[in-house]
Structure formats: structure tokens, C-alpha cells
Amino acid sequence: MKLPYAAVEVGRGGPFVTAAEHGQRPRDSAGLLGLQLTHGGEEVGRLVLARRGRHEEFSAADRQVLDDLVRQIGTAVHAVRLSADLQRSREQLMVAREEERRRVGRDLHDGLGPQLASLTMKAEAARELIDGNPHRAGQLLSELLEQTEHAVEDVRRVAHQLRPPVLDALGLLAALRVHAEGQQPTPVHLDLPQALPPLTAAVEVAAYHIALEALRNVASHAGATRCTLRLHQQGPTLHLEVADDGSGIPVTTASVWGWHRCVNGPPSWAAPVPSRSLRARHPRPSRATQHPQHRSRPVEEPDVESIQVLICDDHGDFRQGLRALLETAPDLEVVGEAADGDQAIRAAAALQPDVILMDLNMPGTNGIEATRRVVGTSPHIGIVVLSMVEDDDSVFAALQAGARGYLLKGARKADIVRAVRGVADGEAIFGPAIAQRLMRYFAAPPSPTPVYPFPQLTARELEILQMMATHLTNPEIATRLGLRPKTVRNNVSNIFTKLQVADRAQAIIAAREAGLG
Into which CATH architecture does domain 171-256 fall? Predict the structure, then answer.
């Protein structure tokens, strides 16, 4: 077109950055023509042209050619921007992945590794001293117990940081339901499918964190009275939307690929329910019909009925350790073991124990679903969750499923035995850490609903009104917000209409009376 200067500038609503140019840019901007570059209705940049002469206008033919060029250049700029965004995303993913690997490696190498090595050495020293110096051996064993508790806490922390345990226990849909029902101060309506196709771990974690963050924003900033969480699969994309009726934040949309006080101890909570006599337990199969492998030992006191316990955990070593611990209590009898949720359900039906010690994360049917099914068919069986996970969603999900106790793995013998006895007698027992979580949750006052001025205004209109109250002109507002002057003028006109004011001065007075500016 024989123009002295042409340039492509890119940016999202300004300021624009020159990506390519040809010729010498005129110092006087009066001779320049700027054409908006768009793609899918979004402004992606502009085409800047210098006229052939200072006062020479473009002909109709020139305009037609430029219209065709603008459409093609807009598509090209969008493609280039996508490529740059993809490259930045790849770089950020690599950095985040390596930082996470370094953090986990540091936690294992500098924390858990030395702790486990120390445990081994102290256990060996205690074994050597147990005959010659039993007092010192007892001291070492006490230290070993304390260090073991710290090691278990470290493992739990590292595992929770890597992936929310509730996803493994429940899956994405059930985890969202539990969080919305038990944790959200603002009522949440769920619009979820009955099922989802298999999702990758990355997609599950991303969708879960996005939903939780959006719901937190609604509770903290939106001033909403209700909220809707929608999730659906469309082709290869998982669509997640959180919408509310508040004025603080707009709709958030995301598409994702691919709880008895203890003396001399920390607080715990026992919530008694209608108690029942130990002799009035549900009839169980005769001991003579039980398989020998389910008998831990004969009853030592025939006149006192022992509490029968079923252990459900997928780690054999942990089951052995727990069995050994329970067998030191004369009134507890381990009648069976199960390595997964399905075995737990069958064993509960066959053995009818008084108490089940249930892990959450097990292969096949998880502990929460197994708890729900056992309680559904045998409500007299008390279930105590004994798990590595302590996040709020997992705790509330287990309670909703029917668990009457919740302890963390690494709990001392006194806590475990007290929980088994209490649940067998109709109480609800929770370890100190879980008790503190429940007390904080139920003791916390409801979050005050923030009051926002002019709820009839959109977030953008409220922002512009606040700037108007500081006596900024429309062009100055456009520059600060990166908007076109016409867009600012339209928003100002909408503000006048919604506030029912005649001019800018009246709008500024209304804004200042509301505390803006």
C-alpha cells in the first residue's frame, strides 16, 4: 500500500507493546491510524499505520484491504500469544515440579531419614540394655515413642502436601459434596454429574483446589447468600463453575484439562450417645464357629465379656503392631483382620465385632464407603477411624458415614484402648488433634457478611466510580485501567442511570457519602 510506516502492537487492553514494525514512526501521532485487532471478540492488539500524507485519508479500497488484513493479523497475533503463553506455562510447570521435588527431597533427607535412623539405633541400644540396665532401656523406649510420633507427623504432613487425602478416599465428586456440606459458611447448591470418566491425578487435584479457592473467595469477599457449584465434562475438557448472588466477585469459571477432657494431657472430646450395657451387645456367632485365625486368645475371665475388635488396614505390619498392642489389654480381643474395604464389610457381617478399627485409604472399597455400608447393615457396630489423614474433609466424611471415633496413626496405646472401650460403650471418641479441629470448627463465630455500597453496580462500574470520586477524568481512568475512552464513557453513563444522578458532580457526592474516594 506504499505506506511510510506500519506496526503491529500487542497487549490485552493496553498498554500495547510493539511486536513488529516497518519504516520510521512519525513523531507526530496525528498522521497515524490505529485499527483494533480482535480474535473471538477479544482485543489482542492493534495495527498502527502512517498515512501517505499528513492530511491524506485512506480510500474505500484501502479500507477494504485493511479490513481483510486486520482479521488475518488478529488471528496471527492470537496464535503467537498462545504460543508464548504455552511456553511460559511449560517453564512454570518445570520450575514448580523441580521446586516440589527439592522440597520433598529435603524433607525426607534432612527430616524423616535421620529420625528413622535414630529410632533404629535407640531400639538396638534398648535391646542391649534391657537385661543389664532396665531403667536406661525404659528411658530409651520412652524417647523412641516420642520420636516415632514426630516421624509419623512428618510423614502425614508431606503426604498431605503432595495430594489431598480426601481425593483418594472419596474421589472428586464426593470430596466436593463433603466440603460443600460441612465446611462452607455460604449455602452451596451442587450441580454435579452422577459420575465422571476416569480423570488424571493432576486434573483431580487442580479441579479440587480451584473449587475450594473459589468457594473461599465467595465466603470471604462476595457478600453472597447462596452459591452454585457446577461441574460437567465436555469432550476432553472438565468445566468447573462457581457462581453466587453477591456483589463482591464475579462468576468464577475454570476449565481443567485432562473432634472427656484428659487430665495431664491435651484436650479431647467425648460425645456420649444413649449408652448400652456391655452385656447387651448384639448377638454374634458362637466362638466355636469362628475360624482359629480370627482368635487372638481364649477369654481369660469368663464372667466378663470382652470387647471384640476387627482390624481393617491394608498394611500388614501395621495390623500386626496394632494386634500386639490391643492384646496387652485384658478386656480387648482381636477377632479378625481385613486388608481392604471389601474384606472389612464381609468380616463385619460374619464376625459381628463390637468395634472396628478402620483405615480410610485402602484398595478397592475405601474406608469411608466401607464404614457407611457396615453401619447401614449393622448399626450396633462402633467404628473408629485410625488413619494417617487429618484434613477436615476426610474427618467430616468419616463422621457422615457413621464413624463414632477418629484417631491418627501414631496415637498412644492409652488413646486407642480408651477409644475402643468408649465406642463399645456407646460414646463418640476423638483424638486430641481431631478434637481441636472440631472445637475450632464449631466454636468459630459465623463469618460476617460484608456490606458493599451500590450493589446495583458491577465490579468495573464500582471501580470507575471510586476513581471518579478522586476527581480523575475519563481519559485518566481509561489510562489507569487500560480501557478505551469510549468504554469508560459507557460505564460512566451506566453509573449515572443506576444511581439516578444527573451528572458527574452528583455521582461524586453519592460516592463520597458511601465512603468511596
Answer: 2-Layer Sandwich (3.30)
* DSSP strands (E only) in 222-298: 227-234, 237-244, 252-256, 269-272
Tell me yes or no: is domain 459-513 CATH 1.10.10.10.
yes
Please tell me the class of the 269-443 domain: alpha beta
d(Cα 437, Cα 485) in Å, to the nearest integer?
52
Residue 281 is predicted with a pLDDT of 42
Q: What is the pLDDT, as a whole number, of residue 297?
A: 43
| Residue 177: how many other CB atoms lie within 10 Å | 18
Residue 383 CA to residue 401 CA, distance in Å, equals: 10
Three cell numbers at 430? 476423638
pTM: predicted TM-score of the whole model, two decimal places: 0.46
Chain region(s) in the chain for CATH 3.40.50.2300: 269-443
Contact yes or no for 455/498 (Cβ under 8 A): no
Query: Partners of 358 in the beta sheet?
Result: 312, 385
CATH 3.30.565.10 maps onto the chain at 171-256
Q: Report which DSSP code applies to 49.
A: E
- pLDDT tens digits along 28-74: 777 788 888 888 778 888 888 888 776 678 888 888 888 888 888 88
pLDDT interval class at 295 (50, 70, 90): very low
